[in-house]
Amino acid sequence: MLANAYRPRQSWTGRASNRSSLTCRRNAPHPVPQIGPAAPAQIADLVEAASHEEGEEIINAVGQDLELEADVFEELDTEHQLEFLSTRTDKDAGRLLATMEPDDAADLIADLDQDRRLSVLEAFRSRPRRRSGHCSATT
Predict the structure, then answer these.
(1) 16 and 73 inside one domain
(2) Structural domain boundaries enclosing 27
(3) How confident is the model over 16-64, as pLDDT tens digits?
(4) What secondary structure does DSSP assign to 66-126, as a single string?
């Protein structure tokens, strides 16, 4: 009976009822769940709880999708927004700000140091803007 109680860890793969959202890596000392896509607020929480290096790694991974990266940045607190924006070039900062919602981008620009604000604004102005889902009244 004890012989049947032990199964190698590799047999745990796909044992969860929702196989698409939870799998375990083979030959890991402990099963390592791989969870499906997370919401921007959840990713921002992970970034805020991580060290700077780990947070930067998360943001770089998310940065493959510009919209998602902007959404995550919008969810970060101001301190973390400024921390991670400070490691970017003005061109990269402008690209990110152009992808963010206008009100969030304006708040972040206002929080930048005066010296950097102008150069980031120049890069921001040269980028196409994110199309918002909100309707605007025109006459």
Answers:
(1) no
(2) 1-36
(3) 433 333 344 444 454 444 444 679 999 999 999 999 999 999 999 998 8
(4) HHHHHHHHHHS-HHHHHHHHTTS-HHHHHHHHHHS-HHHHHHHHHHS-HHHHHHHHHHHHT
